[in-house]
Specification:
Length: 414
């Protein structure tokens, strides 16, 4: 029987998550006998709970095609963690009520670790609550920490942005080193996994090029070793560039930049590593420095997106629909690396039971012995992911964006 498909975006967005959305909508049209409409959740899973379903059939073909150029999450995202069915049966009953009311038989959830967990829980609805629902998780996270998949859509573009920014900023610092700034510190995302910080190493073309120090959350932050290396680097080269993950920890295992604020997933709000390090450099070494926090800029820079990343994002969207049409439930389309150089890859399916609540950290083999650099093995892994330019369409000097209609389906429930 023909059913409707529900798609939702979750967690922090990326430069290419909308490309995945466009691929889902476009691919769904190839199965007119199985899929009637594609609904998008307004603000992620909250769209289902609140019965706020965006009817994507109301959008123009030109707009759907333009999603590949649009950063952010066009349908709205959220940080909302579903508890287990045993803990909060009411939420799952509500989901089923909404899905029944709108004849939804397919649920595609586009997100990272916590989203994979949510998708896994929802995938069990058909068995535990006797409702026929096919649930597919779609990978997305700039943190690149999902298990099984070789890389995560969204990461390649962040890596490209970070590497480019480090390369450009280092030339700025280098030109001012004689009489001004000696140290530049760039803080990047990465709570527990140092993939983004590691990508800064891609900026280096020669031995003495920046970054000179990379601080990873996989290793304890050694203050003395850090300051000694900064001092030595400045003495040798005249300047020093540092890329620091927001998730670095002290000897007690506590985040250096942890605040008292928590997000909806229970994660501590991070941010402040760069000024902390800058204060150390100023007070202990008396060196003039500047710092920057990439923050949202790193994950929203569609103008500098990786074409490899864009292809990954579109492919997982397409295969998510295909897997749903094959009746696969509780799986995720993942990227499989077939070859490093030239880079070759394919898409395969993996059970959510092996992905949900599993965090993939930077392998020890990717980290140099001194802990401040990335090995050749790590560089071999990273390089293909930033290749290619996913060019934008420009109007009056700015990326062209088409406005969505975002028409909500009529509510069927009170």
């Amino acid at each position: 029987m023909k059913k409707n498909l529900f798609y939702a975006q979750s967690g922090g967005v990326t430069a290419v998550i909308n490309a995945t959305a466009g691929a889902v909508i476009t691919e769904a049209k190839k199965f007119p006998k199985q899929i009637n409409k594609v609904y998008a959740g307004r603000n992620g899973i909250l769209g289902a709970l609140n019965e706020e379903l965006i009817d994507t059939s109301k959008e123009s073909k030109a707009f759907i095609e333009s999603l590949q150029f649009r950063p952010g999450g066009v349908f709205g995202s959220c940080r909302y963690k579903l508890k287990s069915i045993e803990e909060n049966l009411g939420e799952y009953q509500r989901l089923i009520e909404v899905f029944k009311a709108h004849d939804i038989g397919y649920f595609l959830y586009n997100g990272g670790n916590d989203s994979a967990d949510t998708a896994f829980k929802v995938s069990q609805i058909s068995q535990k609550m006797d409702y026929p629902l096919t649930c597919i998780a779609i990978p997305k996270t700039v943190d690149n920490d999902l298990a099984v998949t070789d890389s995560c859509p969204g990461f390649g573009s962040v890596a490209k942005y970070v590497a480019t920014s480090v390369q450009e900023a280092s030339l700025d610092v280098q030109s001012m080193r004689e009489s001004s700034t000696k140290v530049f510190i760039m803080e990047v995302m990465g709570r527990h996994a140092g993939w983004i910080a590691a990508s800064g190493a891609l900026a280096r073309q020669n031995k003495n090029d920046a970054p000179h120090i990379i601080l990873l959350p996989e290793l304890m932050f050694d203050q003395k070793k850090f300051l000694d290396t900064v001092k030595h680097t400045v003495a040798k080269l005249g300047f020093c560039v540092v890329v620091a993950s927001e998730g670095i920890r002290n000897k007690k295992g506590k985040f250096i930049a942890e605040s008292d604020t928590r997000d909806a997933f229970g994660h501590a709000q991070l941010g402040g590593v760069a000024p902390f390090l800058a204060n150390l450099v100023s007070s202990k070494l008396n060196l003039k420095n500047h710092w920057a926090v990439a923050d949202y800029l790193q994950r929203s820079a569609r103008h500098l997106a990786s074409d490899t990343d864009l292809q990954h994002a579109q492919a997982v969207g397409k295969f998510a629909v295909r897997y749903a049409m094959q009746g696969m439930n509780g799986v995720m389309p993942v990227i499989k690396r077939l070859q490093d150089n030239p880079y070759r890859w394919s898409i395969a399916s993996a059970p959510l039971s092996k992905i949900a609540n599993v965090e993939k950290k930077l392998p020890k083999s990717f980290i140099s012995k001194d802990g401040f650099n990335i090995t050749s093995k790590g560089m071999t892994y990273l390089r293909p992911l930033i290749r290619g330019e996913a060019k934008c369409v420009y109007v009056n000097g700015l990326p062209k964006l088409l406005e969505p209609k975002l028409v909500l389906a009529k509510k069927q429930l009170t």
